[in-house]
Write a structure and sequence with these properties.
alpha/beta, Spore Coat Polysaccharide Biosynthesis Protein SpsA, Chain A, 2 domains, nine-stranded mixed β-sheet, two-stranded antiparallel ribbon, globular
Length: 266
C-alpha cells in the first residue's frame, strides 16, 4: 500500500546543464521514497531539461516551466503554489541531498510542535576541479538561535531549508519586494520573514551538499553586498526600527557585527 507523501522537493533551475540531472538523482536515491518533486524551469535555454527528461516522467515528478526568466524567488513561488504536502524543501539544481536527508528530516519533524516552521542540519561545501577531482570539502555546522536578533547577528543561512508548508504559505512564500525582485539571496530573505512568526530547529547532522563552482550566484559580490545590507535594514525596520546595524566590510563582502540602539545614538 502506497504511503501518503509528506514532503515535496522544489528544484528551481536555470541553465543548470548536467548538474540538474545529478540533483534529481539524489532525490531518486532517497531512503524515503514517498516524496513528491516539483522541477520549475526558469526559461532555460540549455540542454539541462533534455538531460533530465527520463526522470521527469516519473509520476512523483511535476515539471513546470516559466514563460520568461523571472528569477529564483518567483520561480520558487510557482512551485510552492502547487505544493500539497505538509512539508516542503528546496534543492538547488547544482546541489545534492545525502541519501538519508528526507528520512532524517521527516522523523525529526514528527517530534516538533506547530510553532517550528523550519528544520535544518549541517552542510558540506565541495568544489570539483575540471578533471573531476575533489578540490575541497568543508563541513559547516549550523546552530540553534535564541530569537530573531540572534539569527540576524549570526550572518548564517540554513541548510537544508525544510519548511512547514502552512507556515511558509502564511508569510506569502519567498519575498520579491527587494530592488532585484527576489533574484538574489532568496534564502536569507525568506528566513528573515519566517523567523518573525516561527522557530527554527537544528539537528547536528550533515544533510546537504553544496557545490561551489564559477557559476554560483554568490560570486556576484557587489550585488550580494548590496542585497545583504538592504535585507538587514528592511528586517530591522519591520521589527520596530529600534536598532541601527553596525557592519564590517572586508574584501568586498559585508556582514553585521552589532546592533546599536537608536535611542543611545541620538
Amino acid at each position: 500500500m502506497r504511503m501518503e507523501s509528506e514532503v515535496t522537493i522544489i528544484i528551481p533551475t536555470y541553465n543548470a546543464g548536467g548538474f540538474l540531472k545529478e540533483a534529481i538523482l539524489t532525490v531518486f536515491r532517497q531512503t524515503y521514497e514517498h516524496w513528491k518533486l516539483i522541477v520549475v524551469d526558469d526559461a532555460s535555454t540549455d540542454e539541462s531539461i533534455a538531460l533530465a527528461k527520463p526522470y521527469l516522467a516519473d509520476p512523483r515528478v511535476t515539471y513546470m516551466c516559466n514563460e520568461r526568466n523571472v528569477g529564483q524567488s518567483k520561480t520558487m513561488n510557482v512551485g510552492l503554489a502547487a505544493v500539497t504536502t505538509p512539508y516542503v524543501i528546496q534543492l538547488d539544481a547544482d546541489d545534492w541531498f545525502f541519501p538519508y536527508t528526507l528520512e532524517v528530516l521527516l522523523a525529526e519533524a514528527c517530534k516538533q510542535p506547530e510553532y517550528v516552521g523550519l528544520i535544518s542540519g549541517n552542510i558540506n561545501s565541495i568544489s570539483i576541479n575540471p578533471s573531476g577531482g575533489l578540490f575541497f570539502n568543508i563541513v559547516t555546522k549550523n546552530r540553534s538561535f535564541r530569537d530573531k536578533y540572534d539569527f540576524l547577528l549570526s550572518n548564517m543561512s540554513q541548510w537544508p531549508r525544510f519548511y512547514r508548508t502552512s507556515t511558509l504559505k502564511a508569510i506569502g512564500g519567498w519575498p520579491t519586494d527587494d530592488p532585484y525582485e527576489g533574484r538574489y539571496m532568496e534564502d536569507k530573505r525568506v528566513l528573515m520573514r519566517l523567523i518573525e512568526v516561527s522557530h527554527f530547529h537544528w539537528i547536528d547532522v550533515p544533510l546537504y551538499i553544496h557545490r561551489r563552482h564559477h557559476h554560483n550566484q554568490t560570486n556576484l559580490v557587489d550585488i550580494y553586498r548590496e542585497i545583504t545590507e538592504w535585507n538587514i535594514r528592511d528586517a530591522l525596520k519591520r521589527w520596530g526600527d529600534e536598532f541601527e546595524p553596525v557592519f564590517l566590510r572586508h574584501n568586498g563582502w559585508i556582514k553585521i557585527v552589532d546592533l546599536q540602539h537608536k535611542s543611545l545614538s541620538n
